[in-house]
What we know:
This protein is mainly α. It folds into two domains: 2-61, no CATH class; 73-107. Helices cover 51% and strands 12% of the residues. The protein has helices at residues 2-6, 24-36, 62-72, 74-87, 93-107, and strands at 40-45, 54-60. A two-stranded antiparallel sheet has the order 1-2. A hairpin with an 8-residue loop joins β1 (40-45) and β2 (54-60). α4 crosses α5 (93-107). The chain is globular. The mean pLDDT is 92.
Amino acid sequence: MVLAIEDAPTGYAPDSLSFEGYTAAQVGYHKWLLIDAGLANGERLDISDSEAPEGAIINLTWAGHDFAEAVRNDTTWNKAMGTMKEKAGSITFDILKQLLSVIIRSALGLPPG
């Protein structure tokens, strides 16, 4: 979702986002999660007939663009997912961001930070 928003030509999130295999309620909830995590600017929508909290995204934040850049590279993403599955099974979002940073820093020959 972050990549789809970043790929929008204007900098604004597309009016409608949909992803195969996900309901509109699931997409709306993940929009809210992106806002809540500080990756996107927007607001919570309180819709009485909604199945879950939903968000309306305006654009990505600086942190959202940083995250998009970290996950855009398939090699980096696959290495992070492989490490996660091998070592932990699942991890929090904050740990994922740190893991991506370590992988990128290592690829650049930089200390882990």
